[in-house]
């Protein structure tokens, strides 16, 4: 079996449409950078700059042991499982006396499964890196980027972990070309899909004339 690097953000594409994942990560169709993507990068950068102006350096041990509410932002995470490297950069990690909160900010956030699985993947990496250093429970949190309100929160448990591992194993099979990727059956997704806009996808349910 081949070695792979899977980015946590690519789980969003897989959750949107498996065939889109195949086009983007196996066929390597170039996806243009949209205005929405540029705005997202800009907003993240501004938030990180504002955080760094106030941030106080600390160690992971101090951070994880904190009984007070403390946060850190833009945390790079990675873990190796079997022959695969899972990598990502989570928007924010908070802790207080009760738990660790792995937070992702999205514009107009709604708790779609793909968003949940992305955040569970960060939780999974965090658990593999830090479970020996803290006994606190880990929570996945989706927050609206513009209002700062939590729109979904769930404890990361073994059931979520098994679902995530199934998805990662399926992604590995797609990368190895062992299985056929399944296109979405939702025409609304096709209508909003760059692969449809560029007339690249033979399975589009919203073909351009
Ligand atoms: S056009 Fe539809 S089927 Fe094709 S990649 Fe996009 S979402 Fe998937």
Given the structure, what is the number of helices?
8
Q: How many strand elements? A: 6
Q: What is the share of helical residues?
A: 40-55%
Spans with pLDDT under 50 lasting ≥5 residues? Answer: none
Mean pLDDT, nearest integer?
91
Radius of gyration: 18 Å
Examine the secondary-structure arrangement and name the CATH architecture: Alpha-Beta Complex
- Here the CATH topology equals Lambda Exonuclease, Chain A
Instruction: Note the gap between the termini.
Output: 41 Å
Helix-strand pattern: EHHHHEEEHEEHHH
What gross morphology would you assign? globular
What fraction strand?
15-25%
Overall structural class, as computed from helix and strand content, comes to alpha/beta
Largest pleated sheet: 6 strands, mixed
Task: Map the helices and strands.
Elements: E1 4-7, H1 10-16, H2 18-25, H3 35-54, H4 60-65, E2 70-81, E3 84-95, E4 99-106, H5 113-130, E5 137-144, E6 150-155, H6 158-175, H7 187-191, H8 194-197
Parallel strand pairs: 1-3, 4-5
Antiparallel strand pairs: 2-3, 3-4, 5-6
Bound molecules: iron/sulfur cluster (SF4).
Summarize the structure.
By secondary structure, this protein is an alpha/beta fold. The protein has helices spanning 10-16, 18-25, 35-54, 60-65, 113-130, 158-175, 187-191, 194-197; strands at residues 4-7, 70-81, 84-95, 99-106, 137-144, 150-155.
Question: Describe it for me?
Answer:
By secondary structure, the chain is of the alpha/beta class. It has eight helices and six strands; from the N terminus they run E-H-H-H-H-E-E-E-H-E-E-H-H-H. The protein has helices spanning 10-16, 18-25, 35-54, 60-65, 113-130, 158-175, 187-191, 194-197, and strands spanning 4-7, 70-81, 84-95, 99-106, 137-144, 150-155. Strands 1, 2, 3, 4, 5 and 6 form a six-stranded mixed sheet that branches.
